[in-house]
């Protein structure tokens, strides 16, 4: 579970005096997520999520994340909205951590996403990319190509505790990615972590996205590649082309891919698998036994890296030629 920082009722009630959300009636830690500490709050006016920002979320980035949620909500995208404090700011401090409150989003995430969910998430992602087009702030992706090798070097010496020959495998992929990473593709605001646990549904209808704490300015098609990794593989690590086709169909219905983006999809997907393998590997090797967080298995992404190595064209992910538009731009 992800509650790294404990809070008590006295400090929480004092913290809530900075907001106009009524009196605290109950609260509890949320046993999901791995990055930040989250609490569900019930007050006399409704339900809210309190987040205490932990190690990978820099305080300087919070105005970008929270400002983005405000911007997207204004453009009609369903996502939590930061609650503004009495002093007009959105970020406070609780238990020594930066902290913010956002509105509660109804719905639940899909443990077993179907083709219908994949199509809906593809469409939602494209809508997010369009809604983010006029967001005025920029944030460098702190987990992009240039960051992978330094992150890998932190785990390299112990990587083979996880898998024999992982050193040779990862280094060969890193070298490939460094030489082949695409330049000049359309960029914009990307979510960068749109896994099933960050997308809520009410039945088969998408009710919104959460967890914008990796959002940044990067290649839009890289976000699509992240989603193919996160949504379209089965538990046995096989790629489900029907799900991939649905996700790409949903996305391109709203924002067609250019030929250059389509051509880059295999290397982007390979890079996305590397990115999640690396953060998982680091956490796997460095999270103390017995801590209250469920570690995510890096091998799930080593298996995806192996799959992407065999892919020559986006058609193999399920992209149809008519979904690629000559001259399509950002
Ligand atoms: N606005 C919201 N409305 C309803 N539930 C929420 C909201 N924000 C977070 N949650 C709940 O808290 C859980 C963890 O939130 P979140 O995904 O932001 O945490 P995280 O630690 O950043 O996770 P991740 O591992 O995905 O990065 C979610 O799965 C969901 O159950
Ligand atoms: N979605 C990430 C965890 C949050 O960064 C993963 O599954 O590895």
TrEMBL record:
Source organism of this protein record: Daeguia caeni
Keyword line: Amino-acid biosynthesis, ATP-binding, Kinase, Nucleotide-binding, Threonine biosynthesis, Transferase
Family indicated by similarity: Belongs to the pseudomonas-type ThrB family.
Top-level taxon of origin: Bacteria
Record-given protein name: Homoserine kinase
Biological pathway: Amino-acid biosynthesis; L-threonine biosynthesis; L-threonine from L-aspartate: step 4/5
GO MF assignments: homoserine kinase activity
Residues covered by the Aminoglycoside phosphotransferase domain: 27-257
InterPro entries to which the protein is assigned, alphabetical: Aminoglycoside_PTrfase, Homoserine_kinase_II, Kinase-like_dom_sf, Pseudomonas-type_ThrB
PANTHER family named in the record: AMINOGLYCOSIDE PHOSPHOTRANSFERASE DOMAIN-CONTAINING PROTEIN, AMINOGLYCOSIDE PHOSPHOTRANSFERASE DOMAIN-CONTAINING PROTEIN-RELATED
Reactions mediated catalytically: L-homoserine + ATP = O-phospho-L-homoserine + ADP + H(+)
Spans through the membrane: none
Entry's EC annotation: 2.7.1.39
